[in-house]
Amino acid sequence: MGWTFVLRLLGDRPIPPRRAGAFDHGDVHLPSGRVFVTHTSDGTVEVLDPWPGKHRVSIPGCPEGSGLLCLPDRDEVVAASRATGRVVVISATTFKVLRTVQVGAKPNGLAWDPGHQRLLVADVGPNPSARLVDLSAGKVEHEVPLPGRPRWCLYDSLSSSFLLNIREPSALLSLRSMDLATASSTPIPAEGPHGLAIDAQARRAFVAADDAQLVVLSLATSQVERTLPLTGPPDVVWHDLRTHRLYVAVGEPGKVDVFDTLTFKRVDTVDTQRGCHTSAIDPKRGYFYAFLPQQSALQVFSTADGPRGGP
Predict the structure, then answer these.
(1) How far is CA 60 from the centre of its chain?
(2) What are the tens digits of pLDDT across the range 73-98?
(3) pTM of the full predicted structure?
(4) How many CB atoms sit inside 10 A of residue 137's CB?
(5) What domains appear along the chain, each with residue ranges and CATH number?
(6) Cα–Cα distance, 154 to 177 (Å, whole number)
(7) Which residues contact 54 (CB under 8 A, 6 or more apart)?
(8) How is 232-297 classified by DSSP, letter by letter?
């Protein structure tokens, strides 16, 4: 039986202590399907099982939690704490804090180079910077200044580089993974580049900007291919290569815009909740997660007629 690739609401699950508060970044540990998210208001990392989404544990010790990233090749989760200038390394299976690493003033965005086993930390402090961190050694290996405040960042394996959105001047920055030397800086014709995803196969970047525009950029030519309207100011962007779908979380008014990345048409828009700008995706099992700040809950959607399988 074929799949119908639209978002279908399955339900929501509470995240204790069930009070209003801000979430920041979330991610899925693909081997287990568990969902991890930083709870900025409570200074915790929250862990939930895949649908039906039972809450497993609250991990303290991450004040002003921001960026979060699951490292499946190391079975670890890394979370950034803006209040302490540290990243917290957590076991993805035991949920124990393995170590903390001092990385700078206000760490925010995180990206992982699996080949060289190095973490990029984008700092939004008074002097915006990018740092390359050896988690095992617990030290910063390289540091470079950035031309402006960094937003979302990720690693591109085909170019062996880190990609970072810079809010102002509006640009997509490419840094070489070995030493963080600037490989390129591409102007973005929209205000405030924020969310970022790539289609590694088609060599495209998707930049969601604060002025409610989605900019589609060729990574091969650095040319803008098209600009698409969004339903509001966006935050997190996820691309599912299996279904050729792009998911854009819009905090105001509280929507998820879904685009077909083959036709570049918007194929769905679903309601979440006002202020819901954090999301995560599990392409392996066919789940999309949105984090509801007003009621402190995990909202779960299917990305097809049904899940693709269990853990």
Answers:
(1) 21
(2) 899 999 999 999 999 999 999 999 99
(3) 0.95
(4) 9
(5) 8-302 (2.130.10.10)
(6) 11
(7) 13, 48
(8) S-EEEEEEETTTTEEEEEETTTTEEEEEETTTTEEEEEEE--TT---EEEETTTTEEEEEETTTTE
